[in-house]
Automatic annotation (TrEMBL):
The lineage of its organism: Eukaryota, Viridiplantae, Streptophyta, Embryophyta, Tracheophyta. It comes from Actinidia rufa. Pfam families: Agenet (PF05641), DUF724 (PF05266). InterPro entries: Agenet-like_dom, Agenet_dom_plant, DUF724. This is Agenet domain-containing protein. Residues 398-432 form a coiled coil.
């Protein structure tokens, strides 16, 4: 295949010669950012009207090309051919060496071969079979597709005649406008704007490549967040901002401050009257502001502490508060392989917390369900042992039967040998009998001849 450059009619050098293998970008709806492998068939004059793609002005480098696609078919059959602008044509991406096995990691920017073209996405995970899951951001949503490594390649941008590999880590950009809040109602996960190089798409071109922004739905992870969450409170529809309850209006703040302070003092007094001790430690504010107590508000009465000396009641109460947080944390870290005794011990601790007024019914219910699953596991493990024991017993019986079969086969082989020998001897005897019978016939014939000779001699004249 012819590659390299070619001199145009104007005497200027063309970027792609006839027969060159190239990639063509699409800016049609639903196909933006994709690249399709093609071959240059012909060059058009600078005045070729209405090529499919946008045209830059000036120079033979921007003359349109007639390309023939490798994977796209025309309506009437056969490879699709069309005129395209030089601005959306780039060389075919170089292939890695044959001894270089492609390896992809999370957050790598890659191209996946999908729907007859190369689409740019970001690696989100790699499974144990080396299959790679790639996230493809779209104008309004995002989707993931699993690829075999053979259908992926490292994403490269063609910039100023050079192949440039983008950075692995993507930049997360916050949406513009809107108030912020620490709380967000349940519903669809928040959107973030993710900026990535996707080749030539609509907008201002920058040396053969540009960056485009897409909105992508990001799943939140309670343990770690791989992207920065857009901190916008929502009423269930993205973009509709609601005020956070934690933020007070500055216009009404001064007017309400006095009544709020009085109300707070009354609440504190009321809480202390319901408790068998007075909250004096500064640690209470820290404890009650913890995330777990925001998600699961608690109003323990600590009445069982009345049996203890008043001086130590507050310390014991703080211990119960810490125990509650530890219990919730311990439950979140439970594994299916965790011992059953751990769950039973946690249930006993929860019972003690409940006696002190903690609202732990939901936690207790969850633990009991987990315990039932563990008990079911124990029953199934016992059943599994029984089945394995039966398999072992049956296997031993099968081994004995196999030995008997082997002995029988050995005896059968011995008998078959004896049978063959006896058959051979019988055949030999049959042959001897047949030979003797033939000899009898000869003897009888000789006897008849002797008899005839005898009679002939008797009747002969003297």
């Amino acid at each position: 295949m012819e590659t390299g450059t070619e001199i145009g009619s104007s005497g200027k050098q063309l970027l792609f010669a006839k027969g060159s293998k190239v990639e063509v970008s699409s800016d049609e709806d639903g196909f933006r950012g994709s690249w399709y492998v093609a071959a240059v068939v012909d060059h058009g004059p600078s005045s070729t009207p209405n090529p499919r793609k946008r045209k830059r002005s000036g120079g033979d480098h921007n003359r349109p090309y007639l390309v023939e696609y490798e994977t796209l078919e025309a309506d009437g059959g056969g490879p699709l051919s069309e005129w395209v602008s030089a601005s959306v044509v780039r060389p075919s991406q170089p292939l890695p060496s044959s001894d270089e096995k492609p390896r992809f990691e999370i957050n790598d920017v890659v191209d996946g071969f999908y729907c007859d073209g190369w689409w740019t996405g970001v690696v989100t995970r790699v499974d144990k079979d080396s299959n790679v899951v790639v996230l493809f951001p779209g104008p309004s949503s995002a989707h993931e597709i699993k690829f075999a490594p053979a259908n992926l390649r490292v994403h490269l941008d063609w910039v100023n005649g050079n192949w440039i590999r983008p950075q692995q880590q993507q930049e997360i950009i916050q949406p513009k406008g809107g108030a912020s809040s620490q709380k967000r109602k349940r519903g669809r996960p928040p959107k973030v704007r993710i900026e990535r190089p996707i080749g030539l798409v609509e907008g201002e071109e920058k040396n053969g490549a540009e960056a485009a922004s897409y909105e992508m739905v990001v799943k939140e992870n309670s343990i770690s967040k791989t992207v920065m969450q857009c901190a916008v409170a929502s009423d269930g529809k993205d973009g509709n901002v609601i005020q956070s309850p934690a933020i007070a209006s500055t216009d009404n703040g001064n007017a309400m401050q006095s009544s709020a302070t009085a109300s707070t003092d009354n609440d504190v007094s009321q809480k202390n009257r319901n408790l068998p001790f007075v909250k004096q430690s500064l640690i209470w504010e820290t404890l009650e502001s913890m995330e777990i107590f925001q998600k699961m508000p608690q109003r323990p009465h600590f009445r069982p502490l009345e049996e203890y000396k008043e001086d130590i009641r507050e310390g014991l109460a703080i211990g119960y508060m810490v125990t509650f947080t530890n219990v919730v944390e311990r439950i979140s870290q439970l594994q299916f392989s965790s011992p059953t005794n751990t769950i039973i011990s946690t249930l006993e601790t929860i019972s003690d917390l409940k006696n002190n007024g903690f609202d732990v019914d939901s936690i207790s219910g969850r633990l009991k369900e987990l315990l039932s699953k563990k008990e079911m596991e124990g029953q199934l493990l016992e059943e599994l042992k029984g089945v394995e024991m039966q398999i072992m017993e049956r296997s031993l019986e099968n081994n004995k039967i196999d030995e008997e079969i082997h002995e029988i086969h050995s005896k059968m082989e011995e008998l078959e040998e004896k049978l063959a020998l006896a058959s051979s001897r019988a055949k030999m005897k049959h042959c001897e009998v047949d030979a003797l019978k033939s000899k009898i016939d000869i003897i009888v014939f000789d006897i008849q001849n002797a008899k005839h000779d005898f009679e002939r001699l008797l009747t002969a004249p003297w």
